[in-house]
Design a protein that fits this description.
- This protein is about 70% helix and about 0% strand.
- About 25% of the residues are buried.
- The two termini are about 25 Å apart.
- By secondary structure, the protein is mainly alpha-helical.
Length: about 270
C-alpha cells in the first residue's frame, strides 16, 4: 500500500483553514464587544463593527466589580499555580529518586484519581468546608486543588529522563536530596515546570463549578463566576457580556505568550508524543 503524502502547500492550506476555524469565535467575540448596542442584532451581521463602540467595556467596569473579580482570580490562580507546581515537583522527585515500599502502587493510586470526576467530590467537599466554616473564603477556592495529579505525572516522566550522573556526583560530595532537588533537578527542568505552571494557571483561572458551589457573595466571586452572573442580568447587552469575556482571556493569553517557548521543550522532556 502506498502511503498518502501531502505536499507542503496542501499542509499549509489545511493549517490555515484550521487556524481560521479556531480563531473565528475569538474574533467574533471581540467584534461583538466593540459593536454598538443598536447594531447587535442587525441583519446581516458585521464582522468589522461600523463604528467601533467601547461603551460595553465602559459599562462593564462602571456597573460591575470587575477589578475585584479580576484580583480574586489573579490571587487564587497565582497561589494555586505556585502550590501545584511545588507539590507536583516534590512528589515527582519522590517517585523517581526515593526508594520506599509501595512506591509504584502509590503512584498508580495518584494516577487513578485522574479518572474520578470532580462532580463526585462536590458534596463531600461542600459538607467538609461548611463544617469548618470555610465557605465563601479564599481557602475554599484554594485548598481543594493544592494537589495536581496530572502535573505529578508529567514531572515524573521528565525527571526519569534527566541524567543521573550529575546527581550522583553531588551525593558523593555530601549533598542531600533537598540540595540536589533545588540545585540540580529544578534548574534542569525549567521547561516542563513552566508547562505545568501554564496548565495549572489555566485550570485555576477557568475554574467554575466549585466556585459556583463554594462562593455566594459578590465580592468573593472569581471572574468566570462573576461573568456567569452578569450574563443573566444583561441578557440583551451582548456587547457588555462579551467585553467581559474578552477581558477574561487576556491574562491566559499573556501567560501563554510569556512561557510559550518552554511548552514544546516541556512536552518533549515529559516523554509524551502526539
Amino acid at each position: 500500500m502506498h502511503r498518502l503524502r501531502l505536499g507542503k502547500p496542501t499542509i499549509i492550506v489545511v493549517m490555515v483553514a484550521g487556524a481560521i476555524v479556531f480563531l473565528f469565535p475569538f474574533v467574533w467575540m471581540i467584534s461583538t464587544s466593540l459593536t454598538a448596542p443598536g447594531n447587535l442584532f442587525r441583519t446581516p451581521p458585521q464582522l468589522i463593527p461600523q463604528p467601533f463602540d467601547v461603551s460595553g467595556y465602559v459599562q462593564l467596569f462602571e456597573n460591575e466589580p470587575m477589578l475585584r473579580w479580576m484580583l480574586n482570580s489573579i490571587l487564587v490562580s497565582g497561589v494555586l499555580t505556585v502550590i501545584q507546581v511545588t507539590t507536583s515537583a516534590l512528589a515527582a522527585y519522590g517517585f523517581t529518586r526515593l526508594e520506599f515500599p509501595g512506591r509504584n502502587a502509590l503512584f498508580v493510586l495518584v494516577l487513578a484519581t485522574l479518572m474520578v470526576p470532580f462532580q463526585v467530590l462536590i458534596v463531600p467537599l461542600f459538607v467538609e468546608f461548611k463544617s469548618m466554616n470555610l465557605l465563601d473564603t479564599y481557602a475554599a477556592l484554594i485548598l481543594p486543588d493544592i494537589a495536581m495529579p496530572f502535573g505529578i505525572f508529567l514531572l515524573r516522566q521528565a525527571f526519569l529522563q534527566l541524567p543521573r550522573e550529575i546527581e550522583e556526583a553531588a551525593f558523593v560530595d555530601g549533598a542531600g536530596h533537598i540540595r540536589v532537588f533545588f540545585s540540580i533537578v529544578v534548574p534542569m527542568s525549567k521547561p516542563i515546570l513552566a508547562t505545568v505552571a501554564i496548565f495549572s494557571f489555566m485550570g485555576a483561572w477557568n475554574s467554575f463549578l466549585w466556585p459556583l458551589i463554594a462562593i455566594h457573595s459578590t465580592d468573593m466571586m472569581t471572574l468566570p463566576l462573576g461573568l456567569s452572573n452578569m450574563s443573566g442580568v444583561y441578557d440583551k447587552n451582548w456587547n457588555m457580556v462579551l467585553a467581559g469575556a474578552a477581558v477574561s482571556v487576556v491574562p491566559v493569553i499573556a501567560v501563554f505568550l510569556f512561557a510559550q517557548r518552554y511548552v514544546l521543550q516541556g512536552v518533549s522532556m515529559s516523554g509524551l508524543k502526539g
